[in-house]
């Protein structure tokens, strides 16, 4: 019996040893060369980078490339949501660089998202604006989706203003209302799909960041002051935003569940970006433009669609753009006071 046990242990030990062959070595070498070639260019969904981690070296390459193209040192970053690209048109002395020309940068593939990084000024504030964001449903990993946020940080951005188009879950919300995000629910994270997953690089941020302070209270107060000055209080809301994966819109059962757990608006973006910005040490504020009412009635013939999202965004775009500009002015003035 003892000999039998020894033989079994010996067999199991051998079976755990990796099998080496020239064929496998050749394939591995090919894969390494293929990945190396991909990393020299902007990323597309076809890059198959679901497990790809963002490296500090990639960030540095992107930052250095952009610094050769622009002399502006932005302190505020803005993300334009679906149909809200007009925000970039407010920027003076604009310099536009397409995502596809930036090393390692993901490329936007969705209608309503131009895929351009715009540098310039809002008032006296140096700005970098994402005219078009990256979504996980396009085929990118969440880490790759948030690559632009890491680049913004590398460029010197201290404050992120994120915007999105969202479906209204709260029964008191109306289409074209502007909701300031006071908190979020991140459904992809419940299944372990998180932009911070994997080995942590301390140069990016700490391993276990707290998220109860993700949205900066002082920035929210500045936003409320801007709302009051612009006299658009009747269209202003505060609420909880929930991020789902998409690209499909919600079923009736899903919509009822999201409303039941306290969600006011639902969309397919933003949270992973604000999480990474907060992880990086940026101050964060975010807004949703309510572009449609989520269907919660089985007898309803209404169907959510991307076209109504773009139409609603166009209708409220002037108020939204004025709000962002006023917030930037408030941030700039607040910074001047703090410096003095």
From TrEMBL:
<feature type="compositionally biased region" description="Low complexity">
    <location>
        <begin position="29"/>
        <end position="43"/>
    </location>
</feature>
<protein>
    <recommendedName>
        <fullName>Purine nucleoside phosphorylase</fullName>
        <ecNumber>2.4.2.1</ecNumber>
    </recommendedName>
</protein>
<dbReference type="Pfam" id="PF01048">
    <property type="entry name" value="PNP_UDP_1"/>
</dbReference>
<keyword id="KW-0175">Coiled coil</keyword>
<feature type="compositionally biased region" description="Basic residues">
    <location>
        <begin position="17"/>
        <end position="28"/>
    </location>
</feature>
<feature type="domain" description="Nucleoside phosphorylase">
    <location>
        <begin position="75"/>
        <end position="328"/>
    </location>
</feature>
<keyword id="KW-0660">Purine salvage</keyword>
<dbReference type="GO" id="GO:0005737">
    <property type="term" value="C:cytoplasm"/>
</dbReference>
<comment type="pathway">
    <text>Purine metabolism; purine nucleoside salvage.</text>
</comment>
<dbReference type="InterPro" id="IPR011270">
    <property type="entry name" value="Pur_Nuc_Pase_Ino/Guo-sp"/>
</dbReference>
<feature type="region of interest" description="Disordered">
    <location>
        <begin position="16"/>
        <end position="52"/>
    </location>
</feature>
<dbReference type="InterPro" id="IPR000845">
    <property type="entry name" value="Nucleoside_phosphorylase_d"/>
</dbReference>
<dbReference type="InterPro" id="IPR011268">
    <property type="entry name" value="Purine_phosphorylase"/>
</dbReference>
<dbReference type="GO" id="GO:0006166">
    <property type="term" value="P:purine ribonucleoside salvage"/>
</dbReference>
<keyword id="KW-0808">Transferase</keyword>
<comment type="subunit">
    <text>Homotrimer.</text>
</comment>
<feature type="coiled-coil region">
    <location>
        <begin position="303"/>
        <end position="330"/>
    </location>
</feature>
<comment type="similarity">
    <text>Belongs to the PNP/MTAP phosphorylase family.</text>
</comment>
<dbReference type="InterPro" id="IPR018099">
    <property type="entry name" value="Purine_phosphorylase-2_CS"/>
</dbReference>
<dbReference type="GO" id="GO:0004731">
    <property type="term" value="F:purine-nucleoside phosphorylase activity"/>
</dbReference>
<keyword id="KW-0328">Glycosyltransferase</keyword>
<dbReference type="InterPro" id="IPR035994">
    <property type="entry name" value="Nucleoside_phosphorylase_sf"/>
</dbReference>
